[in-house]
Amino acid sequence: MSPDPRSPGHGRSHRRHEGGFRWEAVELLAYKDDGSAPFRDVTRQVLIERPELACQLRYFEVEAGGHSTLERHEHVHGVMVLRGRGRCLVGEELFELAEHDLVTVPPLTWHQFRAADDAPLGFLCLVNVERDRPQLPSEADLAELRARPEVAAFICD
């Protein structure tokens, strides 16, 4: 299987950093389609996707006060915080996040990332290139998560 020429990194061994958290020939994308799931002020960039690696390296930027979708997947996520600070939910555990922290999200584990109110949160996320679609929580799932007051406070806007 030959690499898709539209894939990030195809045919390029190097792409320059352009300043901030942007890279040469890397498109700034919407996190998701508006209305597809609840989130606020998130962008994504696909930095590397090569078939021979069987993974995708992405950079997400959550603006101050923003958050990713509360969701779960059948695949694992490997996350490294590059910028800012915030908090994340992994299962029923809450973690404070700072630069260079590492987070592993196991399969079928509810997770959400939130930036601090006064700082962005930027992180790399490594996932398998062939992965399932996100699953959103049902009302029963939300009730179970909200049984813990600290988790309830975290996932409520």
Summarize it.
The chain is mostly beta strands. It contains 2 helices and 11 strands, in the order E-E-E-E-E-E-E-E-E-E-E-H-H. It is 9% helix and 42% strand.
Defining key terms:
mainly beta, 2 helices, 3-stranded antiparallel sheet, 6-stranded antiparallel sheet, 9% helix
What does this protein look like?
- The protein has 157 residues and is mainly beta.
- It has one domain (17-155): Jelly Rolls, CATH 2.60.120.10.
- The chain contains two helices and eleven strands.
- The protein has helices at residues 139-145, 149-155; strands spanning 17-19, 22-23, 29-30, 40-50, 55-67, 77-84, 86-90, 93-97, 102-105, 111-115, 121-128.
- A six-stranded antiparallel β-sheet has the order 3-4-5-11-6-9, with no helix packed on it.
- A hairpin with a 2-residue loop joins strand 1 and strand 2.
